[in-house]
TrEMBL record:
Annotated source species: Microbacterium aurantiacum
Organism superkingdom: Bacteria
Gene3D superfamilies tied to this protein: Divalent-metal-dependent TIM barrel enzymes
Swiss-Prot/TrEMBL keywords: Carbohydrate metabolism, Isomerase
Domain Xylose isomerase-like TIM barrel: 27-255
Protein name (database record): Sugar phosphate isomerase/epimerase
Pfam families, alphabetized: AP_endonuc_2
Length: 264
């Protein structure tokens, strides 16, 4: 299933906007785009919401006919238990996270022990925990960790754009993680020469115009045959003013959705 995530609304949520979009507004925009899935990922206000506001947001998603996934950072069991509770409120079947959280950087051995403590709760709830490919941890190490822990509810959130920062090949990342992928973050990316031709900027690109070999990902991971959701994100640089930035962000979202649907 194609979905939108909060990173597809990064600037529209931002305080740099004169009227920032709230979570329910993003839900409505997702539905208007003809999309039935939304991933609330690294959205700080969610963690501060009192139970009543969480219930109201969950009700709004259900009223719009949206399926919800959640995303956070870190694998501290108490933190993930909080997100498992939130998953229950939103009827979410997947939580994306990262090994490193805001205040913790566990070793791989420590990560295995932490995951072993919390995964029985995910197994009992029928919720998947998907650890994202990121530059902080080598893809081979992440795959080895998932295999070492060995839970049916533990897998990988595949974002091959991230691993370029540790000089890994996106294509190799796709191939190495393929058996364990539970979620895909979709965005295109490219290098541009900086002004003066000194160095490069690695940033987002409109889907289909950058370096991401998405047909290879589709062929290798087979997300649609396996029921793996594809969540649209962007790395869109600020476009100089709020109106232009928000308009460009919406345009990139539309183009990405169209691109994904054209490959169905």
């Amino acid at each position: 299933m194609i979905g939108l995530g909060t990173y597809a609304f990064f600037w529209q949520h931002s305080e740099r906007m004169p009227d920032p979009l709230d979570l329910v507004g993003a839900f409505a925009a997702t539905r208007e785009a003809g999309v039935d899935l939304f991933q609330i990922c690294d959205y700080a206000p969610l963690e501060r919401m009192p139970p009543r506001e969480v219930a109201d947001a969950a009700r709004a998603a259900r009223d719009l006919g949206l399926t919800i996934e959640l995303g956070t950072k870190g694998i501290d069991p108490a933190h993930l238990e909080r997100f498992l509770d939130l998953a229950g409120a939103f009827d979410a079947r997947l939580v994306r996270s990262m090994l490193r959280g805001p205040a913790s950087e566990p070793t791989l051995d420590e990560a295995a022990a932490l995951l072993a403590r919390i995964l029985p709760a995910f197994e009992a709830a029928g919720v998947d925990l998907a650890l994202e490919t990121y530059e902080q941890v080598a893809t081979a190490d992440l795959v080895a960790l998932v295999e070492r822990v060995g839970s049916d509810r533990l897998g990988i959130c595949l974002d091959p754009a991230n691993v370029v920062a540790r000089l890994e090949s996106p294509r190799a990342c796709v191939e190495l993680t393929a058996p364990h992928v539970r979620n895909v973050h979709v965005k295109d990316f490219a290098f541009d020469r900086q002004a003066g031709w000194v160095g490069f900027t690695y940033s987002g690109a409109p889907m289909g115009e950058g370096l991401h070999d998405y047909p290879h990902l589709l062929e290798t991971v087979r997300p649609r045959a396996r029921g793996i959701n594809e969540i649209v994100e962007h790395w869109l640089p600020w476009q100089g003013d709020p109106e232009t930035t928000a308009r460009t962000e919406r345009d990139w979202t539309r183009r990405t959705i169209d691109h994904l649907r054209s490959t169905t």
